[in-house]
Design goal:
With 334 residues, this protein is of the alpha/beta class. The protein is built from 14 helices and 13 strands. The chain is globular.
Length: 334
């Protein structure tokens, strides 16, 4: 059965779509069979993969309402992954699902029909905590939270984690939080480092490294209908997503700097992490003078054909064991 990862954050513009497209391409490069699910009525992932949402006759809308099986709607993309596309009709689907019994399980039931054909399913959740996002979390084994390294971006992380806890309790007890993925990260600024430190200490979550550097290449890729791994494969952003793809797949690869991911106890200081420009080292540096600075950046904004498919003080807690470029592959339970 496929391993399902939901990429969720109720704030828009934090690189959910970019992360799904890039991680999907990275896993395909490793020879994994990947299905991308566009659960956002704005259909940015569908557009980013080279499809025109306005021209699609069949979409995830039909699948969630039980009109069609997922296999008929799935399309193949140029980057190698398959796609369950979205259209604006998904906005109406959410209203219809509200009146249905078991509405939280619609996506899970749809994916059960095709899960055996894939190794990984990546779900691009909409920027809200509505029925569609609950469907994504209910269907998932793990959730990744992209975090734009700015103050306003992390204010809703606690609310999202509360929602995850509700899903764990009511609809999906196996769901785990893989961690927070820093995006739009600029290690040269104290602000980016401070945001990462604050999120880690406030919510006791794993920070996934390496961070995603800021680059205009992320904004250019959707217009070509491809991921950054195809359009700018040697860029720092592409290499960072490849590192995360290897970690997800459990494949050993070259270290990125010497980065490790670490957890920060809610009431204590950060555990030390190494890595030039890494979010962990940057976060540690932000808590005191003389902190290390990293190299910048994260994706600019979310949105790129397909054919029908047949330095703070060290805490008493021992450091998390790193696997590849990011630690705690199983994530942190809320």
């Amino acid at each position: 059965m496929a391993r399902v990862l939901a990429v969720a954050n109720q704030k828009g513009g934090v690189a959910k779509t970019t992360s799904v497209a890039s991680l999907g391409a990275a896993l395909c490069e490793l020879g994994r069979r990947v299905l991308l699910v566009d659960l956002d009525p704005q259909a940015c992932l569908t557009f980013s993969m080279g499809l025109d949402p306005d021209a699609l006759e069949l979409s995830l809308h039909d699948v969630l309402l039980g009109r069609l099986p997922a296999g008929i709607v799935i399309r193949r993309t140029s980057d190698g992954a398959d796609l369950l596309p979205a259209t604006i009709e998904l906005a109406g689907c959410e209203a219809i699902l509200l009146s249905r019994t078991g509405r939280e399980h619609a996506l899970r039931l749809a994916l059960d029909e095709v899960a055996a054909e894939y190794d990984f399913v990546l779900v691009d959740c909409p920027p809200s905590l509505g029925v569609l996002t609950i469907n994504g979390l209910t269907a998932a084994d793990e959730v990744v939270i992209p975090l734009q390294c700015e103050t306003l971006s992390h204010r809703g992380v606690g609310q999202l984690l509360d929602t995850v806890a509700d899903v764990q309790r009511l609809t999906n007890p196996r769901l785990r939080v893989r961690g927070v993925l820093p995006t739009l990260f600029d290690g040269r600024t104290a602000h980016s480092r401070a945001v990462v430190l604050d999120v880690a200490s406030r919510y006791d979550v794993t920070i996934l490294e390496p961070p995603i550097v800021r680059s205009v290449r992320f904004a250019e890729a959707p217009g070509l209908g491809r991921s950054i791994l195809t359009t700018a494969g040697r860029s720092k952003g592409a290499e960072a997503y490849r590192a995360h793809g290897r970690a997800i797949a459990g494949v050993a690869g070259p270290p990125v700097g010497e980065a490790t991911a670490r957890r920060v106890p809610a009431g204590g200081g950060a555990e030390e992490a190494s890595g030039a420009g890494g979010a962990g080292a940057a976060a540690g540096g932000a808590s005191g003078a003389g902190g290390a600075s990293g190299t910048g950046g994260g994706p600019g904004r979310e949105t790129g054909g397909g054919q029908p498919r047949p330095g703070g003080r060290v805490s008493a807690r021992p450091p998390a064991q790193a696997v590849g470029p990011d630690a705690a592959v199983s994530g942190a339970a809320v």
